[in-house]
Specification:
Elements lengths: L2 E5 L2 E3 L5 E8 L7 E7 L6 E6 L5 E3 L7 E6 L4 E6 L8 E8 L17 E2 L3 E5 L2
Parallel strand pairs: 2-11
Antiparallel strand pairs: 1-3, 3-8, 4-5, 4-9, 5-6, 7-8, 9-10, 9-11
């Protein structure tokens, strides 16, 4: 069973940066697609970014140029570097993983397509 644990969230001022980590245990991550999602109060969970086993990445438009996803399979860890934070980035951030592949796209952005989830880490952007 794959278990995921996020860390790195916190309170940051607008324009600041954070690096979120997603540490896996149980299995190696080599063959999994990793997705980062977020959920703000009163809103649906949305896909932020993903990285597949080949290292290809995808980002939702609102975070392109500000967020960078990466993975270190040897450390069984994925990272989400988030820069130039805005108040609207405030949310609980989740990492997820799935062994599925989706022909023609890096990943499916639907949360239901991911089988394994972490517990989330809170990111609050406020002055």
């Amino acid at each position: 069973q794959l278990q995921l644990v996020e860390s790195g969230g916190g309170l940051v001022q607008p324009g600041g940066s954070l690096r979120l980590s997603c540490a896996a245990s149980g299995w190696t991550l080599d063959h999994f697609t990793i997705g980062w999602f977020r959920q703000a109060p009163g809103k649906e969970r949305e896909a932020v970014s993903c990285i597949n086993s080949d290292g290809s990445t995808d980002y939702t438009d609102s975070v392109k140029g500000r967020f960078t996803i990466s993975r270190d399979n040897a450390k069984r860890t994925s990272y989400l570097q988030i820069d130039s934070l805005k108040p609207e980035d405030t949310a609980v951030y989740y990492c997820a993983a799935d062994a599925a592949t989706w022909p023609g796209i890096v990943c499916n952005r639907e949360p239901a397509e991911f089988s394994y989830w972490g517990q989330g880490t809170q990111v609050t952007v406020s002055a």
